[in-house]
User: What shape does this take?
Amino acid sequence: MKKYVYFFGSRKTDGKAEMKNLLGGKGANLAEMSRLGIPVPAGFTITTDCCNDYFANRARFPEGMKEQVKKALKLVEEEMGMRFGDRDNSLLLSSRSGARSSMPGMMETVLNIGLCSKTIPGLIKKTGNERFVFDSYRRLITMYSDVVMEKAEGIEPEEGKGIRVQLEAIMDGLKRSKGYKNDTDLKVEDLKYLCDEYKKKVMEVLDRPFPDDPMGQLWGSIGAVFKSWNGKRAVAYRRIEGIPDTWGTAVNVQAMVFGNMGDSSATGVAFTRNPATGDKRFYGEWLPNAQGEDVVAGIRTPNPINEATKNEQNMHLPSLEKAMPGLYRQLHDIQRRLERHYRDMQDIEFTIQEGKLYMLQTRIGKRTGTAALNMAMDMLKEGLISEPIAVMRLKPEQLDELLHPIVDPRAEKTATIIARGLPAGPGGASGHIVFRAEDAVEWEKNGKKVILVREETNPEDVAGMRAAEGILTARGGMTSHAALVARGWGKCCIVGAGAIHVDPVDGKMTVDGKTYKEGDILTLNGTKGYVYEGRIGMIDATENPRFQNFMKLVDKYRKLGVRANADTPADAATARNFGAEGIGLFRTEHMFYGENSEKPLFLLRQMILSNTVEERKSALDKLFSYVKGDIKATLKVMQGLPVTIRLLDPPLHEFVPQEEVQQKELADSLGIDVKEIVIRGELLHELNPMMGHRGVRLGITYPEVSEMQIRAIFEAAAELIKEKTKAIPEIMIPVTCDVNELKEQDKIIKRIYKEVLSKFNLRKIDYKMGTMIEIPRACLLADEMAEEAEFFSFGTNDLTQMGFGFSRDDIGGFLGAYLEKKILKADPFQTIDQEGIGQLIEMAITKGRSTRKDLKVGICGEQGGDPASVKFCYKAGLTYVSCSPYRVPIARLAAAHATIEASSGKKKAAKKKKR
Ligand code: ADP
Ligand code: MG
Ligand code: MG
Assistant: This one.
């Protein structure tokens, strides 16, 4: 019989922190806290494995599970000294979701299970607190009918018709008619009335009575929490985060403790350090006389946990430190202990029941990139973590956020703040206002940057939040679920900007009497919580010295080289700034596009449309100085770092002039008729240009084209050497499929090399000759290719295109469907297809190194900056990766992670062997 149920309590605990996969993060950490002797209400965790078996068993509990639950429940009853469903002394339970990695607010939880006509009178007698009992009961009815009776049954009510909304409307109506401001103003009679009305409403809307037996409520809640794994929000969140569907969620059934028993009771959420900035100060929010859900749902503005971290919104509210100093001290000790134990920032939940503190959750806290960087460097200094762990603490994707712009402080000084809120996610964002998550997705698809403006943070909006540049809400606190999610993504986010009135129905918001419509532009400073009208300039955030120090550490642990793809001296300079150790791809054709390209493009066209070798040579001669100038400038910027220069790659017809003016000009310069130009252009037309007359094939048919470029490369290097500047060009032949192509080209290289040496009176120029590997045949024959080539550079764009047989320019038509139907796991043009194309790469490396031991191998496709691809490259034994200049720091960090992961993997394996 499988063990499905793991007990945790003060006397005995089955699980521990390492068992996250089986118990989910919440369950594993509840067990760990119990082991540490921290006060946690007793309970048990039903495994993620049980969740999978439950689904495999057509949503029925697998055999043996119920018996195990009943046994564990006995233990909980013993420890708490109460009995579930007992008339006089009834235990109440919560049923909480908890997956392997935390998905804040994305799944369901039911509280106060066990309240029914049988247990209510006894509970009132025992506690002497009728208000508390009916407050808990109305909460149970709300949560249970929403989670178990509606969502888990797959009922999808229209907007505003959900049972929860309808029940809340009853409460709001009552509060309004009685003139109450807060839920805490409700009297016993009000709550009794609400419970009765709620039950009637449930019957009316869902056509079933609210269940009145404790065991029935418990089984219903457990099943519903399992089912919430497949709820809409959870599924959307998993897609974005790349969490596999097969993980499943655990269910934690736990004895209830009550923060809503009166003024000596409370509940709260806190972080051991500030998750937005990394500031080393205990930080959080709490509410007196409330249950945990009240804080995270952002219903009331929560109070600050201590004096040191008050903010503009909660200045006037009492801190826990002042209100309950003894309990605050106890909580403070526990949070310190937890952070030391886990050696990382913790996100904790606690409840105080009549002056007694209980911990309900601890987990590694989500944080912004800035906070991750600051915490890693602080904890390193504090001796809490080692260097490699500090490096691992920042995810490569988070670095992207650090490299992102912040609002230009100078421009900000002169701008007017229209509203202030809480700085929930850092950085700056400008964009068009939208009021609905669907609109954010839609606008983003159309290439528009948007700010999603909502009344309150709501986990249902995940997709829209993801699509938005920034998020702004009128209500909600720093620990609200949506703020957590935004922070996890490093999204610029401001919550609780109370001055804003949002009217999503009419698509407008008003601030201080001024109205803003959908499409109007706002700027957010998420680091400070300021909202501005209109667009404000942004600046780069990398000058931070902490960032520089962190990157030094990264390089210390990195083994894989990182270069950049750069086509201009300016790009090359950016790349060096970001720490590139060379250029992995310099495309000569770049000078024929965009700014200042008129003259070289004209000459190139002349060359292309030449009919005789003489005509062509004369055009090439004139083109020569442009090519040389460009290469020389780039080599110079790189100061002796290697620069891989690729010979002309694209199909020539791409350059054929289409407009009459250009055709005429060209015709005149060649002394021929325009008609002749058109005819010559048509002759170059190809049916399948990507596989046509391009790359090395041009060099084979027109050796003089290669010759010109090679001479430009050598002369550029020679001139620099004469000027006492180091230059290391690497000549790269593109689109090769056979070693004989390389032999042909190498003859030219050798000949020109000699000519240039003697012309400049030099003994040698440091150079390499190699090839791009982008055709599957070249991979198969890599051993032969490596006999000629001193380096390989995988052109993974083309290799993927030809390996899959997917035209890169035409994937729009079908790739979406492939991903949706899960035929492919990911877009292979963004992240290397390790299973398929990865094999070609590995084979080419092994074969290549079999004939040339010191073969240098790089990659210069788009995927070179993708963290997963970088890790693959390290494992496959590449010498370096090359990516766009802005992704260089990300690739450096991913490369360091790859080394550290590999070495800790080896250590683990060694340990296992010893055992
Ligand atoms: P989430 O994962 O969405 O945070 P939780 O399972 O943590 O959901 O539960 C939601 C809220 O209910 C939390 O604030 C939590 O502290 C509170 N809660 C859960 N179980 C109990 C319990 N046994 N006693 C008191 N409060 C509880
Ligand atoms: Mg929680
Ligand atoms: Mg290519």
The chain has 35 helices and 33 strands. Residues 437 and 461 are 5 Å apart (CA to CA). The chain has a mean pLDDT of 92.
